[in-house]
Design brief:
The complex is a heterodimer of chains A (about 240) and B (about 350).
Chain A: H1 3-41, H2 51-66, H3 69-75, H4 77-84, H5 90-114, H6 118-126, H7 131-165, H8 172-182, H9 187-216, H10 226-242
Helix pairs in contact in A: 1-5, 1-7, 1-8, 1-9, 2-5, 4-5, 5-7, 6-7, 7-8, 7-9, 8-9
Chain B: E1 2-12, E2 17-28, E3 33-37, H1 44-51, E4 59-64, E5 67-68, H2 81-88, E6 90-93, H3 105-115, H4 120-133, H5 149-160, E7 167-171, H6 179-196, E8 199-204, H7 207-213, E9 216-221, E10 224-230, H8 231-236, H9 241-246, E11 258-266, H10 274-282, E12 287-296, E13 299-309, H11 316-324, E14 328-331, H12 335-343
Parallel strand pairs in B: 3-8, 3-9, 6-7, 7-8
Antiparallel strand pairs in B: 1-2, 1-4, 4-5, 9-10, 11-13, 11-14, 12-13
Classes of the chains: A mainly alpha (about 240), B alpha/beta (about 350).
């Protein structure tokens, strides 16, 4: 295959991947975040302690997380068909990706929120705040940098999952690599896909890291970005040399 | 202003129950600074958390500004609207400040105002006014991480005052601070108490805090208040442990057949030259074994341990003279005397 033939395929596949990852990220965040908060609130000693609900959510989350994604996809076929009317295609893939990523993200959210100092919860209560105030004014804003990091990890996992979703003819870079690279031995396509996936993951990771760092740095005096640290170190070395 | 009646708090534990508060009766008058002291584990923290019902007492009642809080509905964490409203009228400052790292200083002070549903413009006006009051007007845009411990506690205090409370609860507010900063924070609390007529209930393990700003104090041990009253009353109580802790006097008699007495001066007697009068009038040699003199809320209070020659029987008249001068006199149980008693 010539480059001219590959290029339109790559462009389409790229958009398909972005479509799948984009929508499933939105859905995962929208459902996973409240779910994670609920896991914290309903746990023993939590603000809305409800051991039964907590156990039920926990078990569902664990079951979903313990299945390899490829198996989960197959198991989800009836559900997907019921929800979007098809078991294959981009929208079906979005459903499967979301179901796979929600429990993952919910656990990350749970961990992030548990990191918040319980003293802040106490302070908000002492001011006359209710549970909603605690969540909205203290837990979420204080764990935001950590939540952003968690979402970054989730998006990268989704990029990987979306390649697997390619096997159910969902399209995207994974599908392209599978049909051309693997089944037709088009190495050029394979390499181009790999490069694109690496680029995509790198961009997501970088954007996530920068955002998380910018949020965490609010007010912190020290600890710049690694790049800045290196620069600063170089500057220090320079000044010591000249003096 | 704050009254607790037979307050009990029992924490259920795996094999046995832990009693944190064992029938605490506390009475804090309006406009005073009241200190609760005790070692860690004595129940101070639980007590102060029961006052605004962050902890719901197992039994007993808490009344703040004439309102029975224990009667208001809702569990600690799902407190009813009435209890939340009552809480916003009670300020609280914490040992570890508990400021939101994600908000600026001004944002932190605005938080309770947001909870009260006050509009944006009014919020920022009020927050800046409070920051000015605690001396941090220039730090409004800074983040807590950029502040020193003392500055953070000032923000904590400004935040606690946002709801125009009549009562301020202070949970070891100075325990994480150095002595210098501790003094300035205590001074601020005292100023607020006097300027705003704020009633302050503070818990601490530092006697110096009580000495510096408290009008009244209570000593807690094993979930009970073992001593309480105004500082003057405590000093007037023979054998008061708090008085002894606040004004430690020591010193052992120089030989056998001596009478060692502890004197407590307050009010006018503190400024009278009583000891020299005693020596002149009765021609006795008075030696001072130990002494401490302090000014507590503008009043001089002192304790002194002196030694008179001869056994107690010979000194009844001089001791009577001291009592007449309005000095509280206690015959000290020195270590030597205690040893004698055990031998008997």
């Amino acid at each position: 295959m010539t480059w001219a033939e590959i290029q339109p395929l790559l462009t389409t596949a790229c958009w398909e991947t972005l479509y799948m990852v984009g929508w499933s990220t939105v859905i995962t965040a929208a459902i996973g975040l409240p779910l994670g908060v609920l896991l914290v609130l309903t746990s023993r000693g939590g603000l809305l302690q409800n051991v039964v609900l907590n156990k039920v959510i926990g078990v569902v989350v664990n079951i979903t997380r313990s299945l390899p994604f490829i198996i989960l996809m197959v198991a989800l076929i009836p559900f997907t068909r019921w929800l979007v009317g098809a078991a294959f295609g981009l929208n079906a893939a979005v459903v499967m990706l979301s179901v796979g990523a929600i429990p993952f993200f919910a656990r990350l959210v749970e961990t992030s929120i548990r990191e918040v100092d319980p003293g802040l919860v106490e302070a908000v209560h002492a001011m006359g705040g209710n549970t909603r105030t605690v969540v909205v004014k203290a837990l979420l804003p204080e764990s935001l940098p950590s939540l952003v990091s968690g979402l970054t990890t989730t998006v990268i996992a989704l990029v990987g999952y979306s390649a697997m979703a390619g096997t159910i003819s969902a399209g995207g870079l994974g599908n392209l690599a599978w049909t051309y690279g693997y089944q037709r031995f088009e190495n050029k396509v394979m390499i181009a896909t790999i490069v694109l996936l690496i680029a995509l993951v790198t961009v997501v990771q970088l954007a996530g890291d920068l955002t998380a760092r910018a949020l965490a740095r609010r007010g912190a005096r020290t600890s710049g970005a690694p790049g800045l640290r290196l620069l600063r170190a170089a500057r220090v070395a320079e000044t010591t040399e000249t003096s | 202003m704050i009254t607790t009646t037979d307050l009990r708090k029992v924490y259920p534990s795996r094999d046995r129950e832990i009693t944190a508060l064992d029938g605490v009766d506390l009475h804090v008058r309006e406009g005073e600074v009241y200190g609760v002291v005790g070692q860690s584990g004595a129940g101070k923290s639980t007590l102060i958390r029961c006052v605004n019902l962050l902890e719901r007492p197992t039994s007993g009642t808490v009344e703040v500004a004439g309102q029975d809080l224990t009667a208001l509905g809702g569990r600690t964490d799902r407190a009813g609207a009435a209890l939340r409203a009552a809480r916003s009228g009670i300020g609280m400052v914490f040992q570890h400040f508990n400021l939101l790292a994600s908000r600026t200083v001004q944002g932190n002070v605005e938080l309770p105002l947001e909870i009260l549903g006050i509009s944006g413009k009014e919020r920022s006006r009020k927050a800046l006014e409070l920051l000015d009051l605690v001396g941090l007007a220039d730090k409004a845009r800074a983040y807590p991480a950029q502040l020193s411990g003392g500055q953070k506690q000032r923000v904590g205090i400004a935040r606690a005052l946002a709801g125009d409370p009549k009562v301020l609860l202070s949970d070891e507010a100075t325990s994480a601070l150095d002595p210098e900063t501790t003094r300035s924070i205590l001074q601020l609390l005292r100023d607020l108490n006097q300027q705003l007529g704020l009633t302050v209930l503070l818990i601490t393990h530092e006697m110096d805090v009580v000495k510096a700003i408290c009008d009244s104090a209570a000593l807690m041990k094993n979930g009970r208040v073992v001593e309480s009253g105004t500082v003057a009353e405590l000093l007037a109580t023979p054998g008061s442990e708090l008085a002894h802790e606040l004004f430690p006097v020591g010193g052992e008699p120089s030989g056998p057949d001596r009478t060692v007495i502890d004197l407590t001066f307050h009010g006018e007697s503190a400024t009278e030259p009583v000891i020299s009068q005693l020596a002149r009038t009765y021609n006795v040699d008075v030696s001072i074994l130990g002494a401490a003199m302090e000014t507590i809320s503008g009043r001089q209070i002192g304790r002194m341990r002196i030694e008179l020659p001869g056994p107690f029987e010979d000194n009844v008249v001089p001791i009577g003279f001291l009592r007449e001068q309005g000095i509280q006199v206690e015959v000290a149980r020195t270590a030597a005397a205690r040893v004698k008693e055990t031998v008997k």
